[in-house]
From TrEMBL:
Gene3D superfamilies: Medium-chain alcohol dehydrogenases, catalytic domain (3.90.180.10), NAD(P)-binding Rossmann-like Domain (3.40.50.720)
Gene Ontology annotations for the cellular component aspect, listed alphabetically: cytosol
Any one GO molecular function term: NADPH binding
Domain of life, per lineage: Eukaryota
Organism: Stichopus japonicus
Keywords: NADP
Record CDD domains: zeta_crystallin
This protein's name: Putative quinone oxidoreductase
C-alpha cells in the first residue's frame, strides 16, 4: 500500500512559506532503496536554492532536504547493508528529508553510531563528510600540518577544525565574524581565531601564519581566495568548499608558489569516497574525539521559520536541524 508522509513538499518555488508541511505520497520502494522513518533532518544552505528554483535538478513537486537520520522501516529486496530497525544517517535521498518518511538508495545510507542522537546524526553528512573529504581525501592532511579553516563558526568550519586537530594538525587557525562564533571555534579546538570583520584582519592573519601554512579549507572563496593565495606556503594546497559570488584572484600567485587548488563538492563525490568518509567519521566518534555540534533545533512545522532564520541570523553557530516526531 502507498505510504503517506507529512513533508515540506515544494509544489511551486517560492519563499520560506512554501515549506509548510503537507501530505506526500511516496513512490513504491525500489529494490535497492531503504524506507527511513525520519527522526531528524539537516538544514542546508543549498535547500534555499532548491526552494527558490535555482537548483536545476529539483523540479516541483518534490520534498526538500538532502540529509538526515532515522530508523530503517523497510528494505528493498536487493538491499544487503541494512535491516528493519537499524539506526542510520544518509545524504542525497530519492525523496527529501524534511519529512516523516524518506526513500534513499542503500549506497547513500550509513550506520549511525550508538553514541549519537538522531539530531547529531542528521548533521554528519553534509558538513562533517565535506570537511573530511576536503581535508583528507583532497587536501591529504598530514600529522604536523599547519591548517587555516576559513569560516570556522559555520557548519563545515566547526567540523573541519575538529577533524584537522583530531588528525594531528600542529596548528589550526580559523576565522569567524561574531564573538560567539569565535568562542565556538575555540571550543572546537582552534588555536587562534580571527574576526574577518576587523579592520586589520588581513595583516593579522598574515602575521599569524608566517610562511608555514600547508593547507587551507576555504568556505568563502569569493571574498577570501586572493588572500588565501598570499597566506599559503609554497607548494601548499587550497581546498575550496564554498563561495557565494564570483571570485577574482591574481593567478600569478598560483604560479609563483606552485599552489594546488582543489574543488570539493560532496554531492558529486563518488559513492566509495562518501562511504570512506562515513566510515572514518564512525571511527573518530568511536575513538571519542569527534562530537557533532548541533545548532538550533526546529520542529517540522517550523521548517519555514528555519529558512527565515538562515538568512536573517547575525552569525553562524554550527548547523541547524529539524527534529521530526518528537
Ligand atoms: N562543496 C560542498 O560539498 C559543500 C558542502 C557544504 C557546504 N558548502 C558550502 O560551503 C559554504 C559554507 O557552508 P556552511 O554550512 O559552513 O555555512 P555557514 O554555517 O553559514 O558558515 C559560513 C561561515 O563563513 C563565514 N563568513 C560569512 N561571510 C564571510 C565573509 N564575508 N568573509 C569571511 N567569512 C565569512 C561565517 O562567519 P560568521 O557567520 O561568524 O560571520 C561562517 O563562519 C556555503 O557556501 C555552503 O553552501 C559546500
Amino acid at each position: 500500500m502507498a505510504k503517506i508522509a507529512m513533508a515540506s513538499v515544494i509544489k511551486e518555488f517560492g519563499g520560506p512559506e512554501v515549506l509548510a508541511p503537507s501530505e506526500f505520497k511516496l513512490p513504491h520502494i525500489g529494490s535497492k532503496q531503504v524506507l527511513i522513518r525520519m527522526k531528524a533532518a539537516g538544514i542546508n544552505e543549498v535547500e534555499q536554492k532548491m526552494r527558490r528554483g535555482q537548483f536545476r535538478f529539483a523540479q516541483p513537486p518534490f520534498v526538500i532536504g538532502i540529509d538526515g537520520a532515522g530508523v530503517i522501516e523497510e528494505t528493498g529486496n536487493e538491499v544487503t547493508k541494512f535491516k528493519k530497525g537499524d539506526r542510520v544517517f544518509f545524504m542525497k535521498p530519492d525523496t527529501g528529508s524534511y519529512s516523516t518518511l524518506c526513500l534513499a538508495p542503500e549506497d547513500n545510507v550509513y550506520h549511525l553510531h550508538k553514541n549519537l542522537t538522531f539530531e547529531e546524526g542528521a548533521i554528519l553528512p553534509v558538513p562533517y563528510m565535506t570537511a573530511h573529504r576536503a581535508l583528507l581525501q583532497l587536501g591529504k592532511i598530514k600529522q604536523g600540518d599547519f591548517v587555516l579553516v576559513q569560516g570556522g563558526s559555520g557548519a563545515v568550519g566547526l567540523a573541519a577544525i575538529q577533524i584537522a586537530k583530531g588528525l594531528g594538525a600542529s596548528r589550526v587557525i580559523s576565522t569567524a565574524g561574531t564573538e560567539e562564533g569565535i568562542q565556538l571555534a575555540y571550543e572546537h579546538g582552534a588555536d587562534v581565531v580571527r574576526n574577518y570583520k576587523s579592520p586589520d584582519f588581513k595583516q593579522t592573519l598574515k602575521d599569524d601564519v608566517g610562511s608555514g601554512l600547508n593547507l587551507i579549507l576555504e568556505t568563502n572563496a569569493d571574498v577570501n581566495f586572493d588572500l588565501d593565495l598570499d597566506l599559503i606556503a609554497r607548494h601548499g594546497k587550497i581546498v575550496i568548499v564554498g563561495k557565494r559570488g564570483p571570485c577574482q584572484c591574481d593567478i600569478g600567485k598560483v604560479l609563483s608558489k606552485e599552489t594546488t587548488i582543489l574543488g570539493c563538492a560532496l554531492l558529486y563525490a563518488a559513492t566509495e569516497n562518501r562511504q570512506d568518509s562515513a566510515d572514518a567519521l564512525y571511527r573518530y566518534i568511536e575513538a571519542g574525539w569527534l562530537k557533532p555540534f548541533v545548532g538550533k533545533i526546529y520542529k517540522l512545522d517550523e521548517a519555514p521559520q528555519s529558512h527565515v532564520d538562515m538568512t536573517s541570523r547575525k552569525g553562524a553557530m554550527g548547523k541547524d536541524v529539524i527534529s521530526i516526531e518528537k
